[in-house]
Specification:
single chain, 216 residues, alpha+beta, four-stranded antiparallel β-sheet, 3 helices, 4 strands, 12% strand, cell cycle
Length: 216
């Protein structure tokens, strides 16, 4: 009986040992699984953290890229506006210069027209004056008494003849100034005859004078 109990105790001990080994092995397996799960969780958390950091970095980079793009777009718009303003200013300057030239040409043309008009008016006035003078002197005659080289000599002759005789300065063919003694013009034959008698009485009956038509 004791032997049987001893064997029973040995079997029980063996069972307990195996049971403990089984439990230890099971616990060890459980611990390994827990550690693996913990490691997996840690790895997952690390991956999630990395992904979060990556996403944040990407977001920051995207934001920076957008800011840079906006900055670049703003610079492009500013450059385009500056170029457009420059071209507009150049075009305006060209238009102003063209207007200035056109104004100068218009003023020059106006001056030329006015000058031509004045010249025409002057020519017409001179023509009318000549016609009036011709009408006034038509049929009038005068005496050309003498042509002398000095004004003093001519005045002396005119004074000798008395009234109705004057001195005229004229340009000779050589360009030299000559002095002519002439009588007043008249359309009355009797007055002309009286002046002829006056010349003959003062300068001698044989003195040669010329009877001229006024205006010629």
């Amino acid at each position: 009986m004791k032997e049987k109990n001893k064997k029973t105790d040995e079997v029980a001990k063996t069972f307990d040992i195996r049971k403990n080994d089984f439990h230890n092995s099971e616990n060890k397996g459980k611990k390994t699984e827990e550690e693996q799960k913990a490691a997996e969780n840690t790895q997952t958390n690390n991956i999630q953290a990395i992904n979060t950091d990556t996403a944040q970095n990407n977001q920051v980079q995207n934001t920076e890229n957008k800011v840079e793009e906006q900055k670049t777009d703003a610079e492009k718009e500013a450059a385009a506006k500056a170029e457009a303003d420059k071209k507009a200013a150049e075009q305006k300057n060209k238009e102003l210069e063209a207007q200035k030239i056109q104004k100068e040409l218009s003023e020059q043309k106006k001056k030329e027209v006015e000058a031509a008009k004045k010249a025409q008016e002057k020519a017409e006035a001179e023509k009318k004056a000549k016609e009036a003078a011709a009408q006034k002197t038509a049929g009038r005659r005068y005496l050309q008494v003498a042509t002398l080289q000095t004004e003093a000599a001519a005045k002396k002759v005119a004074a000798q003849l008395g009234g109705n005789f004057t001195v005229q300065a004229i340009k000779g063919s050589s360009g030299r100034t000559m002095y002519r003694v002439v009588s007043a013009s008249t359309d009355n034959p009797q007055t002309l005859s009286a002046m002829e008698s006056q010349v003959k009485s003062k300068l001698g009956g044989s003195y040669k004078y010329i009877v001229r038509t006024a205006g010629k």
